[in-house]
Amino acid sequence: MQSPKHIHLIGICGTAMASLAGMLQMQGHYITGSDAAAYPPMSDLLRGLGIPVYEPYAECNLELRPDLVVVGNAISRGNVELEYVLDARIPFCSMASILHDEFLRGRESLVVAGTHGKTTTTSMLAWIYEVASWRDTTLAPSFLIGGVAENFATSFMVRPTRPFLLEGDEYDTAFFDKGPKFLHYFPDAAILTHVEFDHADIYVDLSAVKTAFKRFVNLIPRRGRIVAFDGSENVSECVARAFCAVERYGFGEQSHWRVTHLRHDGPLTRWTLLRGGEPFAELSLPMAGEHNALNATAAAALAAGQGIPIEAIAEALATFKSVKRRLEVRAVVGGVTIIDDFAHHPTAIRETLRALRERYPGQRLLAVLEPRSNTLRRNVFETALVDSLALADRVVLASVFKSESIPANERLVPEHVITALNERGVPASVHTDADAIVVAIAPELRDGDVVAILSNGGFGGIYQKLPRAISDSIVLRAGRTLQPRGDM
Known about the structure:
Blueprint: E1 6-10, H1 15-26, E2 30-34, H2 42-49, E3 53-54, E4 68-71, H3 80-88, E5 92-94, H4 95-104, E6 108-113, H5 118-133, E7 142-149, E8 154-157, E9 163-168, E10 172-174, E11 177-180, E12 189-192, H6 206-217, E13 225-229, H7 233-239, E14 245-250, E15 257-265, E16 268-275, E17 278-285, H8 290-305, H9 310-318, E18 328-333, E19 336-341, H10 346-359, E20 365-369, H11 382-389, E21 394-398, H12 414-423, E22 428-431, H13 434-441, E23 450-454, H14 462-478, E24 485-486
Parallel strand pairs: 1-2, 1-4, 2-3, 4-5, 6-9, 6-12, 7-9, 12-13, 13-14, 14-15, 19-23, 20-21, 20-23, 21-22
Antiparallel strand pairs: 7-8, 10-11, 15-16, 16-17, 18-19, 18-24
């Protein structure tokens, strides 16, 4: 686009869409958007940018006819704004296509893909490049991340330099383009973290998921490189026919990038990283969890192969501040620590709870889950979900989010999960919504408890309601007022 335009984004509060809105605004365009409901952190980002967000969807949101409409991948036929766009013949496109055409052409595209760990790993990679740019300004990265990277306090950055780092999503692109978004990004080099069955609403089985990742791998040129996790047979299958160099990372003796001497020191994780069997670096990360050490290793490996100095890699990881809604401490009140995590899949839930066990050893851990993602709302993952949640000392489930949109024979039944957990000796209960959950658990929480709230949405405002209720309970018990600390 050579001249400023009015661009309207339908579904603007999605993580990638909100970031795209900011990027287009930086290019000088006038941006508006709409969504069914706005919630942090992306609503805060858009508000800070001064981008108007209309709620709910309505034809009147398009009365000031835009020059172009970007249709989010969650938008389907029947949406009132989409129908208006089609009837009025307003030009439209997908998020992935405009990202490629306006931002990726002529740049070095580095893409982080995989079922888990994409957001955190991309954030780590961006921070590594940022630290390296303090010594070499040509390395200053542009990036697009599916979450707010706390080191930058944003999810995007656009600069005139060549490196462009982005999270490659395997979810479909738009109602008119059912291929994965990452097929639009044409990477020069890539990370592949994990490959598991996910997004059961668009992929029929694991084989279909693997096909998508094989197509992604097939886009990487011979001069490129893939850094791929070596602890997964699915990943091995997906990179088996790559035309470029493939470097594996993990804990195995045959790993090209091998994590050794992993240890936890309070909030810090430390390890020795070997490259081709030889010492490469001593690394530390101010985050808990074996999975985060692996994410950092992947970022370090890709960065090193692109010429980033070891010193910059080590300094960046040691000062990494995580991502909003990834093991984020939202409040501490009365000795109760409330954690917010985006966990959307049984494997992600398992790794989150394992990390919290490492970070808060000996403390009672409660898992509060909203089955909200298209994956968790389906019963295909019921057994795996039970296995993951069993790592907690107490489990609370909300009702399935918008359960009516899932066929009854495919829908998760929270009562089945609760029964299975209780049979394993894990106290568990189900409640209709956030308000009911707060009423049920706030009086029982005590000093030292850790509450992991697991949802990829707003969860009915539970992040604000639970701290207040805990404070009220303490007042009732102790007859005094206690002000909570954190994000209230």
